[in-house]
Design a protein that fits this description.
alpha/beta, D-Maltodextrin-Binding Protein, domain 2, two-stranded antiparallel ribbon, about 300 residues, 12 strands, 10 helices
């Protein structure tokens, strides 16, 4: 789909989307009088007054990173994150409204209060939490994360893997395409230095979207691409009926996706963590992951700021 780096999705993929705009209002829960010891009622009671009064949770999302978030045939957001967000909305008894936002703008626009949270394959990494740039200098207040899914980085190559690529070291001497500002950008940039010590230069093509990166793998302009595992697996399974790409080697640098919350919005952060836990306990979480074929990334429980 993917932030120091923006948020894919691992650090802080699809053409960059147009200006932010409300896309979808999805269902609310409600109905019926809950029992006094109902854990869902307890969670709802802890929702901050602002969201409770508005009856809506506004979520920044770059709807262009299948299967994590993308536009379905009806033009509405679909995928892992929209489904999980809708389920969280039912627990909290609020509508969820997705605000379509270019990936690089997700965290800045969150800090600018254009929505309540950002949920878009954003990797929980220290640089984002502390608001640091690539050189370790603080450039913004940072964000807190409610971690809900584990994703590693995978290597995508043409079907048949003609160059025999299996590891990051096998990328030395080759060209790799990836989306700029993602965890993959960070990983590949580190690998450039590793390859330089072997005398085999790694060339990086940093594109504005994951779709453009995969197009370079298709054309041969790049020998491989780097993606979050769910996105890599989905591209390999669905593109040209599974005939264009394959995922090679194992995952590297596993890190959680997190729902990003502004620093200081502790009430909202904590109630979202409780809602994620309730979603997991209810079994609905596993149903959503199974639907999108990403059960391997299941989290056991919500964790606040648990990334590396």
């Amino acid at each position: 789909m993917p932030h120091l780096l923006p948020a894919r999705r691992p650090a802080l993929a699809g053409a960059v989307l147009a200006t932010a705009g409300a896309l979808l209002l999805t269902g609310c829960g409600g109905g019926g009088q809950a029992a006094p010891d109902d854990p869902v009622k307890d969670i709802r009671d802890k929702l901050p007054k602002a969201q409770r009064a508005a009856g809506v949770l506004r979520i920044g999302m770059d709807v262009n990173y299948a299967p994590v978030e993308f536009r379905g045939q009806d033009g509405k957001p679909a995928g892992l994150d929209p489904d999980l967000a809708a389920a969280l909305g039912k627990i909290l008894d609020v509508r969820v409204e997705f605000v379509d936002t270019p990936f690089a703008k997700l965290v800045p626009n969150l800090q600018g209060k254009q929505y309540d949270v950002a949920m878009s394959a954003l990797s929980d990494i220290r640089q984002r939490r502390d608001g640091l740039d690539e050189n370790g200098k603080q450039v913004d207040p940072g964000v807190d994360f409610v971690d809900y899914f584990i994703a590693g980085t995978s290597i995508v190559v043409p079907k048949g893997n003609p160059k025999g690529i299996k590891t990051l070291d096998d990328l030395c001497g080759k060209t790799v395409a990836l989306q700029q500002g993602t965890t993959q950008d960070e990983i590949a940039t580190r690998q450039v230095a590793v390859c330089a010590r072997t005398g085999r230069q790694l060339t990086l093509h940093k594109l504005e979207s994951d779709a453009k990166a995969l197009a370079e793998v298709t054309s041969g302009a790049a020998a491989a691409g780097l993606n979050d595992f769910p996105v890599a697996a989905y591209a390999a399974k669905t593109t040209d009926g599974g005939g264009r790409f394959e995922v090679t080697g194992g995952q590297s640098t596993s890190n959680p996706y997190g729902i990003a919350v502004r620093k200081g919005d502790n009430e909202l952060r904590d109630v979202l963590a409780k809602a994620v836990d309730q979603l997991i306990r209810s079994g609905e979480y596993d149903k959503v992951l199974t639907k999108w074929g990403v059960s391997a990334g299941a989290a056991q429980n919500a964790v606040v700021n648990g990334g590396i």
